[in-house]
Amino acid sequence: MKNIKGIIICSLIACVIGAVMGAVSGLFGEAIEFISWIRDKYYLFLTPFLGLSGIVIVFLYKKFSPYSQQGLDLAIEYQMGEVDEHGEVKDFGHAHKIGKFPKGYAVLKIFNNLLMLLFGASTGKEGTIAQCGAAVGDYASRIFKSRKYSQVLLISGVSAALGGLFQTPIGGLFFALEFAATGVLFYEAIIPALISAYAACEISKLFGYSAFSYTVNFEGGFGTDKIALVLLCAIVFGLIGRGFAVLLNEARDLYKKKVQNKYIGIFVAGCIMAVMLMFIHGGRYSGTGENIINGIFTDGEFYIYDFALKMIFTIICICVGFTGGEMTPLITIGASAGAVMSMLTGLPLGMMAAIGSVAVYGAATNTLLAPIFIGIEMFGGDAAVYIAASCIIAFAVNGNKSIYSAQRHAIRSLYSVLKK
């Protein structure tokens, strides 16, 4: 898309995508908050049915959209495929078997995400909305007969989804540009994706939805010793993100190999998880983890093992089929780890929690620019330099590991360079 006409066409369609995803993100965000309030109030009555809800989720996926459980990997396959002279995406992954996003994809993903969060699964929400954005972008390219721009519009859909749900349009833009391939930015989509992200952000606010954000006030600077501590902590955050990605992928592979009947697998795992979630701090680790984030930033309350338990619960839930998303749990894990680092080093709690949240997220997703901008948009600019430096270091020590198995790698990891 190197001509002005293509940019104008995609930008106009991006306005529509942004409007649609802004409404969807706002309503979805409000629904998540209501569902979370219901679950927290009645967790003793709802959490025991987590296993049964898993059976319903597996049935709905198998019946109506078998490929939908791939999550954002499906969007990556579409984005990285080749567009032929007819504007059709072909020759990659599973997409050549289905030709386009499954019918009812967005509705099914949203319903299943709300269902699993209602009954206490430790999972996120952004995966669902990003996949919906990708589907809306794909649908828009068909409705407006602009299939040759399908990849640009898909990126615009993902950008709008995250820009609307987290109200971080620049962060959403760069995530959409870089999550499919490390070291590659799809610059041709930058203007339409920017427009869709800002449109979605503003429209989601019109629905009364307000994403979580915490202003970290930090005036002045650190001495050399404190800066060194921050950078050492960034290495820890990078290793935590790397560990999450490695463990999640290995757990998924093991589950696929060992468990043939997905109904039994998700039911048994759901029942075991339900007991653990109920009796370990009364549902503290259920849901997206925003309760833990709020406790850290608002009241300074946390347990030193929060990050480890949230990681374990989230990995198990996602690998057995409770696939809502990883971003919010990763932010929770990072903020909790940052709080522990603050306790150990004496560095400011709010700043370390903010740095940890985005550094762990960036390392686990193998993205660099997105976590930096998300951190600045969520937590303010006072700690921008430390957020950026920490995300760079976390990205470097990650070693090209990613929670997205379909992600392409256009650059070598630090580990491969050091081996030579």
Task: Describe it.
There is one protein chain. 69% of the residues lie in helices and 2% in strands. The chain has helices at 4-41, 43-46, 50-64, 72-80, 95-98, 105-118, 126-143, 150-165, 169-178, 190-206, 224-258, 262-279, 290-299, 306-320, 327-345, 349-365, 369-379, 384-398, 414-419; strands at 82-83, 89-90, 181-182, 408-409. A two-stranded antiparallel sheet has the order 1-2. A two-stranded parallel sheet has the order 3-4. A hairpin with a 5-residue loop joins strand 1 (82-83) and strand 2 (89-90). The longest helix has 38 residues, at 4-41. It is globular. Residues 83-87 and 91-98 have low confidence and may be disordered.
Structure, briefly:
The protein has 420 residues and is an all-alpha fold. The protein has helices at residues 4-41, 43-46, 50-64, 72-80, 95-98, 105-118, 126-143, 150-165, 169-178, 190-206, 224-258, 262-279, 290-299, 306-320, 327-345, 349-365, 369-379, 384-398, 414-419, and strands spanning 82-83, 89-90, 181-182, 408-409.
The radius of gyration computed from the alpha-carbon positions, rounded to a whole number of angstroms, is 20 Å
Q: So how many helices?
A: 19
Helix-strand makeup class = mainly alpha
The strands making up the biggest β-sheet line up spatially as: 1-2
